[in-house]
Amino acid sequence: FHCHGYRCVSLVYDLMEPYRPSVIDRFVLKLLNYGTLTPEQFEKTSRSCRLTEEARTIWCEKYEAFLEKPSKSFDGMSRRALIRKESHAFAQRVFHRDDEKIA
User: Fold this and answer.
1) Rg from Cα positions in the chain
2) Position 4 confidence tier, pLDDT thresholds 50, 70, 90
3) pLDDT at position 97, please?
4) End-to-end CA distance of the chain
5) 67 and 78 Cβ atoms separated by less than 8 Å
6) What one-character-per-residue DSSP string does the chain give?
7) 7 pLDDT tier (thresholds 50, 70, 90)
């Protein structure tokens, strides 16, 4: 994923990587451990494994709630607020805009 080339979006992968364990991995394990998603909610073929439409709806609802919930790990901020704050700080460093906020 982290390559340079035509239509390659490696920066986005580099930016999201620090959050993968504390957001996505934790979220997926939580869904599976609590039985929120079950094996029956996956459509399997010889080439893929996908969530059913019902499971996708559950995923989206639970994911949005998970991102908005305050976390002790992030000093009481939600995961979404932390990611937004750190993304804005990164953008300010890239564009050398210490004197103005990036919306």
Assistant:
1) 17
2) low
3) 60
4) 28
5) yes
6) ----STT--HHHHHHHGGGIIIIIIHHHHHHHHTTSS-GGGEEE-SS-EEE-HHHHHHHHHHHHHHHHSB-GGGTT-BHHHHHHHHHHHHHHHHHT-TTS---
7) low
For residues 43 and 33, is the Cβ–Cβ distance under 8 A?
A: no
> What is the pTM (predicted TM-score) of this model?
0.73
Q: What is the Cα–Cα distance from 36 to 53, expressed in whole angstroms? A: 14
Q: What is the pLDDT of residue 16?
A: 84
Tokens found for residue 27: 């979220």
Quote the CA–CA distance of 12 and 9 in Å, as a whole number.
6
Token readout for 103 is 């919306």
The structure tokens listed for 59 are 């995923």
